[in-house]
Design a protein that fits this description.
This protein is of the alpha+beta class. Helix content is 60%, strand content 13%.
């Protein structure tokens, strides 16, 4: 092959390569342009679809007429859409499309309502739109309706019609406001409440009714076609009851403005009910059922001029039913059915749980009742023990003695009196010698030393047995009270579930829907209530890309639904999920300050300040006996146990008893710990104080009055049945001071803390605590014990 031939082949190949590359680049460019156009169209649709839909709806709403001169829905719709200019234009166009004398009246009503609302918002920016807008609807419709009525011949019935129309306008604002929101957000929502579904149907009814008497090809009533299609959708995706409800709404829509609205309503109700009954057999069965119902109603009513719904209208609606997807409609109404099933399941679970809890409570109660405890403490000097002691001495020492008959038979009373005094002497002094016995007894008894030894030994045995017996009784008493308290806790939980649904699914659904309307994608939401009516909302949702900006929005929505302030208490967001917890906002919060000084390297004083789930905040101060690491261990254990018991739901007194039992079980140690517990109800300001061997608590009222609450019980680790609590109501500005005995005993004056509080003019807890500790460190007792002072101030949230 020549050089020129090779050159020609190369050029041809290169030309083909370049041509193919250009073709591919042009194709890619066309694809990119097409994709860009699609993206832009999608963005335009997402941006303006809501406005376009509202404008179309506004047009048809303007065409609605109950009867001649009665059309109350235009102004409520405009105010519900926040007076969008395009929506206003379309609505006015709809009003004019009716071409009757009343168009001017409703145009004036709409313009007056818009002007009034704008002026009120401008003059009073803080005005509540939810109250102002319905009132404006009523006033505007009533004033113009009355004016137009008075300028013609009228009767009382005409005045009543004006009042009726104004009332309908007032009431229509609320479902239209909510219904329009559902229409606008249905595509992105998955939670729908029963109220939202009803308002959705009302809005759909108004939209359908607004089509009016428009015919296609002179024989298709367009309003009937749309109404029948909606009935088909309702029968196909919802329960029989909901399907019948949709049929009734569509009957009202189709008959509104006709001469025989009752016939339309009855026809749609019967046809829709039959269609819903056979909905389980598919779309063909639904259409056949509706058609059969139409034949039945036509024969039954014998309305000759024409059939209320023609079969050609049913045919067109059926074609739409098969062709167009029912995704959004199915999502709305199947959501209602799913929620109802969840509610029924929750009720069934609640019943099972309450029965099980009641049985568990009864089991703990019976277990508590099986523990019998004598209320009488064991005493080594009780008559039974004394008699046994006499018998032991007589058997061990005197039985083989020659004087046994004279001492224990002839003079038994004298012998017992002597021995009784001897035992009392042992009890009081811990010992007994011959000099402690009467002379006549020593002169007669030949085994005095053996009797003394036997008395001391046996008394010690009886004394130790008595101690152990009392300790076992104390432990058994603690067990009994524990089982009884467990029974009460379980029973309380059962009542909590019964009286206040622990998981309020209906309320959860309402909140989920409201938050979805704000653009949040809710994954799971639970509303939890307890027997104290405290409400907690736990939310799990997909990240909203708003960082922490959604928190105030959620708090505002919850506050609006419940009617009380809500705040976020915990939770965090990640790139996968946000888990948040909100609860009712309390009236008060407790500002605290802690000042400490340890005697050694480790302080034996331990404290805890935390908020419980029942809207209360506690301050717990424990002072272990002694100082250093051992005292710290005992006080720390007491604090940890107390924290867990309070979180679990045990009462304050039972928590102390349980801790006391743990010390009683520790037979190898005589260590104890004081318990100083104050629990403040953050809703009403009630402070409840329980003390076990603790120093007084000082309350300085805002008025300057000092209230002292003292302890009357022993520390935990010592048997004591005194577990009474003190209660006092606190107000904003009141001060609370709790302290350990290192602070209390630092100054040789019983009421020095009260005097110091009166002298300190500041109400800052930190300054008060710092001043009290500074006073203690300036005394000679500054190194005697660990020092802790906790100061709190009641503040408004």
């Amino acid at each position: 092959m020549t050089f020129f031939s090779l050159q020609a082949v190369y050029n041809g190949t290169r030309y083909l390569y370049i041509q193919r590359r250009i073709t591919m680049e042009l194709a890619n460019e066309r694809i990119a342009v097409t994709q860009k156009i699609k993206t832009n169209l999608l963005l335009i649709y997402e941006k303006y679809s809501k406005l376009i839909f509202l404008s179309i709806m506004a047009f048809f709403t303007g065409r609605i007429e109950f009867m001649a001169g009665i059309s109350p829905f235009s102004l409520p719709l405009l105010l519900a859409t926040d007076i969008n200019p395009l929506v206003v234009v379309f609505n006015l166009a709809g009003i004019f499309s009716n071409r009757n004398l009343y168009s001017i009246k409703y145009v004036l009503i709409c313009l007056t309502g818009i002007i009034l609302t704008t002026l009120i918002k401008w003059i009073i920016p803080a005005s509540d739109a939810k109250r102002i807008k319905p009132a404006v609807c009523f006033v505007s419709v009533f004033v113009y309706g009355l004016s137009f009525t008075l300028f013609k011949d009228y009767v009382i019935f005409d005045i009543l019609l004006v009042i009726f129309e104004a009332t309908v306008a007032f009431l229509a604002y609320f479902p239209l406001k909510k219904g329009i929101t559902i229409f606008s957000t249905a595509a992105g929502k998955k939670y729908f409440t029963p109220i939202e579904i009803t308002t959705f149907l009302l809005t759909l009814t108004i939209f359908t009714a607004g089509i009016g008497n428009i015919y296609l090809f002179d024989f298709l009533f367009l309003k009937n076609v749309l109404a029948v299609y909606i009935v088909f959708l309702g029968a196909g995706v919802s329960s029989m009851g909901t399907g019948a409800q949709i049929s009734a709404f569509m009957g009202i829509a189709a008959g509104l403005g006709s001469d025989f609205p009752g016939i339309f309503l009855a026809t749609y109700c019967i046809n829709g009910l039959i269609a819903s009954t056979v909905s389980g057999y598919g779309k063909i069965a639904i259409i056949a059922g509706f058609s059969l119902g139409n034949v039945f109603t036509s024969i039954l009513m014998n309305y000759e001029p024409y059939m209320v719904i023609s079969f050609s209208e049913i045919l067109i609606a059926a074609l739409c039913f098969f062709i167009f997807p029912d995704t959004h409609f199915k999502k709305i109404f199947s959501s209602a059915a799913d929620n109802m099933r969840e509610l029924n399941s929750a009720e069934a679970i609640k019943k099972i749980a309450t029965v099980k809890l009641e049985r568990l409570s009864l089991a703990f109660k019976k277990l508590s009742d099986t523990i019998f405890i004598s209320g009488i403490k064991s005493d080594p000097l009780k008559p039974e023990a004394i008699n046994n002691l006499y018998r032991d001495v007589a058997d061990k020492v005197c039985k083989s003695c020659a004087m046994n008959f004279y001492c224990w038979e002839k003079d038994s009373n004298i012998t017992k009196k002597v021995l009784n005094r001897a035992i009392s002497h042992i009890k009081d002094n811990g010992n007994l010698t011959e000099s402690d016995l009467p002379a006549h007894f020593k002169g007669k008894c030949v085994r005095t030393e053996e009797i003394i030894s036997s008395l001391i030994t046996n008394y010690e045995i009886y004394r130790l047995n008595s101690i152990w017996e009392n300790k076992v009784k104390d432990i058994a008493s603690v067990y009994k009270s524990q089982f009884s308290e467990l029974s009460d806790i379980v029973l309380k939980l059962k009542k909590e579930i019964e009286l206040n649904p622990y998981f309020d699914k209906a309320l959860s659904l309402e909140i989920s829907s409201a938050l979805e309307n704000e653009g949040l994608n809710i994954k799971e939401l639970n509303v939890i209530k307890d027997c104290n009516e405290n409400t907690v909302v736990e939310i799990s949702m997909f990240p909203c890309q708003k960082k922490d900006k959604c928190y105030p929005m959620i708090e505002e929505s919850l506050s609006e639904i419940f009617g009380i302030p809500f705040v976020r208490t915990s939770g965090k967001c990640s790139y996968k999920e946000c888990s948040l917890k909100f609860r009712e906002s309390e009236k008060y919060f407790l500002k605290t300050s802690v000042r400490q000084k340890a005697k050694n390297e480790v302080s034996g004083d331990t404290y805890s300040i935390k908020t419980l789930d029942n809207s209360s905040r506690y301050i717990l101060l424990c002072d272990g006996s002694g100082s250093g690491e051992i005292a710290a261990d005992y006080s720390e254990n007491t604090v940890k146990l107390m924290e867990e018991f309070l979180k679990t739901g045990f009462s304050k007194s039972t928590s102390v008893k349980l801790i006391n039992s743990s010390f009683l079980y520790n037979f190898t140690s005589d260590r104890t710990s004081t318990v100083d517990l104050g629990i403040l109800d953050l809703k009403n300001g009630e402070l409840e104080i329980l003390k076990k061997g603790a120093c007084p608590t000082y309350i300085k009222k805002k008025t300057g009055e000092i209230v002292i609450i003292r302890s009357t019980s022993f520390p935990v680790g010592i048997t004591d049945d005194s577990d009474k609590t003190a209660k006092i109501n606190l107000d904003e500005g009141d001060l609370l001071v709790m302290l350990s005995d290192g602070i209390y005993n630092a100054v040789d004056s019983e009421d020095w803390i009260a005097k110091a509080l009166r002298a300190i003019k500041s109400d800052d807890p930190d300054i008060i605590g710092k001043t009290i500790l500074k006073i203690c460190l300036s005394t000679k007792h500054k190194d005697d014990d660990d020092m802790t002072v906790i100061t709190g101030k009641i503040c408004l949230s």
